[in-house]
Every structure is written in C-alpha cells, then in structure tokens.
Design brief:
This protein is of the alpha/beta class. The chain contains 13 helices and 15 strands. Residues 1-9 have low confidence and may be disordered.
Length: 379
C-alpha cells in the first residue's frame, strides 16, 4: 500500500486540525467544535477569510476567490509552522471545501485527514491524483436534506451537488445522514461521534443509506437554473434585436377622415418580407406571402365620433384591429393562409363620385358628412 493510501495513526497531541468556514458567516460553530477537539487532545487552529458574500460565491472565478484562498493558505502555513508539523488535518464546510480543493490542486501543502461537510465541489475533482497529499480517504458528510449544494450547482458554474448526493469516487468516503441539512453537522456532538474517531486513525463508518431528495431538488439537479436564465436572456436579446419597430395608428375625432392613406400604408408594410433569420414570434410580426388590396380601400372615407389610437408591431394585426370595429366597412381576410386580402364591405359603404369622375367610398357618413367631403374636395 503506497503512502497516499495509508491511514497515519498519530497521537492526538501531534495532530493539528484546522477549521474552515463557509460563506456569509462568522462561523459561530467554531467554538463548540474547537472545544470538543481540544478535550480529545488535538491541537486546533481557526481560519478566517471574512464574510464571503453571495455575489462572489456565485461567480467562483480567480478574481473573486483569490482573497479567500490566500487568507486560508496563509493561516494553514502559519499554523503548521507554529506547531512544527508537516501535515494539517481540516474540517471544511461549504465554500471552505472549495478552497481546500483549490489548494490541494494548486499548492504543495500536505494534509492529514480531510473532512468535508456541505460540499460544493464537483464530483469529478481528481482526488486520486493527489493521493500522496492526504491520509486515508476524504470523508464527505452528506446531508440528505441539504439543498444548498444542489442550488449552487444549478445556479452557477464551478460547483457540484456533492454535499447532497456524494462523490461516489475513489479516495472519498461518502457518509450519508438522513434528514440533516447544510449546517446540521457543525456542533460538538457530531464532532465527537464522527470526526474525532477519524482523526484518531479509525476507519470511517457508515451511518445511513442514501435518501432520495424531494422531486423539485431532483428537477433542479437536471434542469439547471443557469441554463434556463441563459435561454431567457438570449430570447430577450434576440427579441430586442429582431423586434419590428413600433408604429402607431392614429385616427382623430373628425367629421370625416380620409382613411385610405393609413390603410394603404399598413398594406404596404404587410407586403414587406420579414427577416429571414429572425423567427416570427421574436419579431412580433407575421410574414405574409402575398397581399391584395382593392382599390376601393385607398379611397375609403370614414366619419369618426371618437379618436382611435394604438401602437403595433405587426401591420396585419393593426389592419385586423381596424376591421374588428374601428372601421366597420373594412374587411381583412386570409391571415391564416398568409394571403392577406383587404377590401371594403360595399354593403355597408356608399359610393360617392367626385367632380373628376373618381369614386370615394364613404363609411358611416350621413348627408352632413357627405357635404363635408364635398367641401373638402372643392377647396
């Protein structure tokens, strides 16, 4: 058996144990666990990298984690020098485990026994490559009701749900505890029952069988929130980029209103081809293959008793809105088969000949409105 796989059974007073806390805490559990270890004869030192905030935790990049790693590494080396030992055992919690894994990968510090609780390290971490750097196996305490490692893995990159599911890898002993949550391990009784025997060189013993987490945690472990957010942000960005410009329809209150110009404008917009790469649901505009418009709509005159005003992206939708009641004589068909047809319901409109022989189609116009139209035309 090589040196990396041997369990070094040292006297308690020759072992140094360091406690490493997680994020957003001043580690009040330190005192109870330290006293329990002291009572068992171990040397104990504490580390402190400050109250690591959630923002930096969710972005586990070197820029944000280097201060915490530097502080912990400094404390480990200082304690080893002070106690004149060449190895240090650790009890690490949550993000403190992430720091120890980083140090194990990138620094030359040698460890005695390593105990994790509430691990957020990815299950692929190659402990087997560093077997000569720590004693025995890494003991990973798994709380079957620990939601935070799953959330950390689901929300951001760099973390894994090993505090809830275990590593299931060589050189790691996953020990399951049914019903325990993220910080339930951090007390003197748990330390005396489970950690002190490990530090004394005993083989770690199992406790409970794994337990299936609630369905919503299993869901989050498969459908990661970060990918859902990326998809939503991507859709939002594409929608913003692809969105057809917003326009307005405004038909003021008036005795008569020559609506043909507005209708002709909307028909011309609907005839324009949509973008070839932006999906319609992102543009908010239907792509019509062909459009047709009776000449009558270009000469449509309406009498308005109230102002019509609305914004639109899809000119076809604007035409539908007008035809649905705003202009009773307007007919819009063919939206479903992408062959837009716009016309005038001549059963509801009346024809008026101008002095040059052209026809106007009047919608909702009484005799007074007809006189108004004639006055406008003869000015």
């Amino acid at each position: 058996m090589d040196n990396g796989s041997q369990v070094r059974s040292r006297d308690a007073d020759s072992q140094l144990v360091m406690l490493i806390h997680g994020i957003r805490t001043r580690a009040p559990w330190y005192i109870a666990v330290r006293d329990a270890l002291h009572s068992a004869g171990f040397k104990v030192e504490l580390t402190n990298y400050g109250r690591f905030d959630l923002f930096r935790f969710l972005l586990p990049f070197p820029l944000f984690t280097k201060w915490a790693v530097t502080d912990v590494e400094r404390d480990l080396r200082a304690a080893m020098t002070h106690h004149e030992v060449d190895r240090v055992s650790v009890i690490a919690h949550s993000f403190g485990i992430f720091i120890i894994a980083w140090i194990l990968r990138h620094r030359d510090i040698k460890f005695g026994h390593i105990i994790f609780s509430g691990s957020v390290v990815k299950f692929r971490f190659p402990f087997e490559q560093y077997g000569n750097r720590f004693d025995g196996v890494v003991v990973n305490e798994v709380g079957t009701r620990d939601i935070w490692p799953i959330l950390a893995a689901s929300v951001t990159w760099g973390y894994g749900p090993t505090g809830a599911f275990g590593f299931n890898r060589p050189r790691v002993f996953d020990r399951y505890h049914r019903g325990l949550s993220h910080s339930a391990f951090l007390n003197a009784d748990f330390c005396r029952s489970w950690w002190i025997p490990v530090f004394r060189g005993e083989e770690p013993q199992s406790n409970d069988e794994p337990e299936t987490p609630p369905w919503w945690l299993r869901f989050l472990s498969v459908v990661h929130i970060k990918y859902v957010l990326i998809a939503l942000v991507t859709l939002w960005g594409l929608s913003t980029w692809c969105r057809a410009p917003e326009r307005e329809v405004h038909i003021p209150t008036a005795d008569v209103y020559f609506a043909g110009g507005k209708i002709r404008e909307l028909v011309a917009e609907a005839e324009r081809p949509c973008s070839q790469w932006c999906p319609e649901f992102l543009r908010g505009q239907r792509c019509m293959r062909t459009t047709a418009s009776e000449g009558a709509v270009e000469t449509l005159v309406v009498r308005r008793t109230r102002t019509i005003h609305f914004a639109y992206h899809d000119p076809t939708a604007a035409l539908e809105t007008l035809a649905s009641g705003a202009i009773a004589c307007l007919e819009v068909e063919g939206e479903d088969d992408r062959a837009l047809r716009v016309g005038v319901n001549k059963a509801l409109a009346s024809e008026m000949k101008t002095s040059d022989g052209k026809s106007l189609w009047l919608c909702g116009c009484d005799e007074e409105a007809r006189r108004k139209v004639q006055e406008i035309l003869t000015r």
